[in-house]
Specification:
This protein has 77 residues and is of the alpha/beta class. Helices cover 27% and strands 27% of the residues. The strands form 2 sheets. The chain has a 3-stranded parallel β-sheet, with helices on both faces. It has a two-stranded antiparallel sheet with strand order 2-3. The chain is globular, with a radius of gyration of 13 Å.
């Protein structure tokens, strides 16, 4: 069975829309694919992140770069 790895996302502005988006460089997906791992993208706006993390029972976790502490309250949580 392939291992599931959770990865955090950064927050980006969508200039043509009035919304923020969670995003991740496509390089990360290639990285997971090359290692035969299953990436699980972790949204920034979940109310109960602890339930999400428990439900997936990750084999590992990557806190990806992006957004300095204090730049985005949802991601900081």
């Amino acid at each position: 069975m392939r291992k599931k790895i959770g990865i955090s996302l950064r927050v980006t502005d969508a200039p043509n829309y009035t919304e923020k988006r969670d995003s991740l460089s496509q390089d990360w997906i290639k990285f997971f694919e090359n290692l035969d791992l299953i990436p699980v993208l972790i949204p920034n706006t979940l109310e109960h992140i602890e339930n999400f993390l428990e439900e997936f029972s990750f084999d590992g976790l990557i806190l990806s770069g992006g957004d300095n502490i204090g730049d985005n309250a949802d991601r900081d949580k």
